[in-house]
Design brief:
- The two termini are 28 Å apart.
- With 231 residues, the chain is mainly alpha-helical.
- 77% of the residues lie in helices and 3% in strands.
- The longest helix is centred in the last third of the chain and has 41 residues.
- It contains 8 helices and 2 strands.
């Protein structure tokens, strides 16, 4: 029994940073602000205009909503159009739509991992709070602190890597997870999402996870401190 409990605790500590990471990624995928802020910051409208597409801010907001809809829909390929001179124009080439299909698979994988880790962490937390009349609450708090520290350590490594050479990390990531080279297809895709957009997204991930880890770890530390003071 003790071995099973120890294994369950280790799994919880490992699952916690995975839960935070997948939750933050899912949040970014569904954040219209992230898209529109990136479009504005990197003057995407101007870049698209130089490429022959003259769009308004409303058009850019519609594109952001279109991506969020696609990533949460059952559609296999993305199909976004914009109005140009009274005609509907497809925003992406075939190669680009294939790449977005691959990206969607990654996001769906993220959702599944998020669901799995959330369920495990929730059940573990409930067991820690209520099992054996709460005798394991101190262990739960300690394990939460360990998971939070692990999250902070991983974000420190990611942050250092991004600061040292984000472009190389991003390039190696694409080689690792994609089986084709359509991620480098020239067209509106690269204009909509320049490298700076992804750098900012990575920075937001690090910041969000650090804050969440500090909150969870801080609450757990405060509980242990209060409990030991009472004893």
């Amino acid at each position: 029994m003790k071995i099973a409990v120890s294994i369950a605790r280790i799994i919880f500590v490992v699952c916690l940073p995975v839960l935070l990471l997948t939750a933050v990624i899912a949040g970014e995928v569904n954040s219209s602000w992230l898209y529109t802020h990136g479009f504005e910051k990197y003057d995407v409208r101007q870049s698209l205009g130089d490429n022959g597409l003259n769009l308004t801010d409303a058009d850019m907001a519609g594109i952001a909503r279109g991506f969020i809809h696609y990533f949460n829909s059952s559609e296999e390929y993305i199909s976004l159009t914009v109005q140009q001179n009274g005609k509907s124009v497809m925003l992406f080439s075939n190669e680009e739509t294939i790449h977005f299909k691959d990206v969607k698979k990654l996001f769906r994988f993220d959702y599944n991992v998020l669901l799995g880790t959330f369920c495990y962490c929730l059940l573990f937390t409930l067991a820690g709070i209520f099992w054996e009349k709460g005798k394991n609450r101190n262990n739960l708090a300690g394990d939460t602190i360990k998971g939070s520290v692990l999250s902070l350590g991983l974000m420190l490594l990611l942050g250092i890597g991004a600061l040292v050479d984000f472009d190389s990390l991003f390039y190696q990531f694409h080689l690792l997870v994609f089986t084709n080279s359509f991620w480098s297809a020239e067209g509106n895709m690269l204009l909509l999402f320049p490298d700076g957009f992804w750098y900012d997204a990575a920075v937001y991930i690090v910041i969000a996870i650090v804050l969440l880890a500090l909150i969870l770890g801080g609450i757990s530390w405060a509980y242990l401190h209060y409990h030991r003071k009472r004893e």
